[in-house]
Design a protein that fits this description.
Elements: E1 2-6, E2 9-13, E3 18-21, H1 27-34, H2 37-40, H3 54-62, E4 69-75, E5 86-93, E6 97-104, H4 113-124, E7 131-137, H5 141-149, E8 153-162, E9 167-177
Parallel strand pairs: 6-7
Antiparallel strand pairs: 1-2, 2-3, 3-4, 4-5, 5-6, 7-9, 8-9
Helix pairs in contact: 1-3
Length: 179
């Protein structure tokens, strides 16, 4: 359910939390969580160790008017929960497509948070896409289950460079056709 928009980016409400645009005040918690090697290793772009200023630069890009990716914080303050439990994003692609990316802070692993966030974003489809893609590293079976549980279908193997691992890592790629 879409509640409101901020800079052409909707706020997506669920019972447990809101997906709201990332903001400068998130930098401290984002920095704390992404310094955890377990989080960084499961992403393509978060370095480990995290260099000074990396989080600030990311938030600046994510909030720029000419951004190519919309980034939402998983925010449970409406139910007296944590202000930031993870991030989820949609990167614009050509041909009315986008790519979903997400990470969840370790304190919230195995709570269904990632599945709820992906499901909410797919249902809201804020970019009005016909197709969403996602890929996960093959050693991250939990994220693969999240995608399958949210209606994504496996379409093949590939590989992606992980900045934290400083290596190419095998991935599984998924697709979800919408509307």
């Amino acid at each position: 359910m879409v509640l409101d928009t901020t800079d052409n980016q909707p706020i997506v409400a669920t019972e447990r939390f809101d997906l709201r645009p990332v903001r400068q005040s998130d930098i401290g918690l984002m920095d704390l969580y992404t310094r955890d090697e377990r989080v960084a290793r499961m992403t393509t772009s978060i370095p480990h160790p995290l260099p000074p200023g990396a989080t600030e630069a990311y938030v600046t890009r994510a909030t720029a008017p000419d951004r190519t990716e919309d980034v939402w914080a998983m925010d449970a303050t409406k139910v007296d929960g944590a202000e930031l439990m993870g991030l989820i994003s949609l990167e614009r692609m050509d041909r009315n497509q986008s790519e979903v990316g997400y990470w969840v802070a370790p304190a919230f692993w195995n709570t269904g948070l990632a599945s709820d966030a992906v499901r909410a974003l797919v249902e809201a489809n804020p970019m009005g896409n016909a197709t969403m893609f996602a890929s996960v590293f093959q050693d991250n079976a939990a994220s693969a289950r999240v995608l399958v549980n949210c209606g994504f279908e496996y379409i093949g193997d590939a590989e992606a460079y992980s900045v934290a691992r400083q290596a190419k890592v095998p991935t599984w790629t998924y697709i979800r056709k919408l509307g």
